[in-house]
Write a structure and sequence with these properties.
With about 130 residues, the protein is of the alpha+beta class. The protein is about 50% helix and about 20% strand.
Length: about 130
């Protein structure tokens, strides 16, 4: 495979030097771009965060179950009032609409929020309050 088209009619010694000097550089650039692309694809894959209702410390809480990813944990730690439960090995906040919105606002761009269990609980609770 020649990197220099023949139409330029360059001396064969120069062609060989170009192949020797620049081919490793070109391969390195291609590999770097491939690595960057793979990193970008992995970066775009969003983690799942599950929100569960739980009774903890005598009150209803929103349990935030997530993978141990530094960027996600750093964002969770910034949520006002969030605490770590050693029992559940998860973050939690008191169950309220305001806290749900805080969680959503802080994490929806970093991860996919799975709220099915929380929704089921709230619907069931609303039905029993009637």
């Amino acid at each position: 495979m020649t990197l220099i088209p023949d139409k330029f009619q360059i001396d064969s010694n120069i062609k060989q030097n170009v192949k020797t000097l620049y081919l490793p550089l070109i391969i390195t650039v291609i590999l770097a771009e491939t690595t960057r692309l793979n990193y970008s694809i992995n970066f775009l894959k969003m983690e799942d965060i599950n929100l569960f209702p739980v009774m903890h410390r005598g009150a209803e809480q929103i349990l935030i179950k997530c993978p141990n990813v530094k960027s996600i944990n750093d964002h969770i730690k910034k949520i006002q009032g969030v605490k770590w439960s050693q029992t559940h090995k998860s973050w939690y906040l008191p169950l309220s609409k305001e806290n749900y919105h805080l969680i959503h606002q802080s994490l929806h761009q970093l991860a996919t929020l799975k709220t099915d269990e929380l929704k089921k609980y709230l619907v069931k609770k609303k039905m029993s309050d009637r």
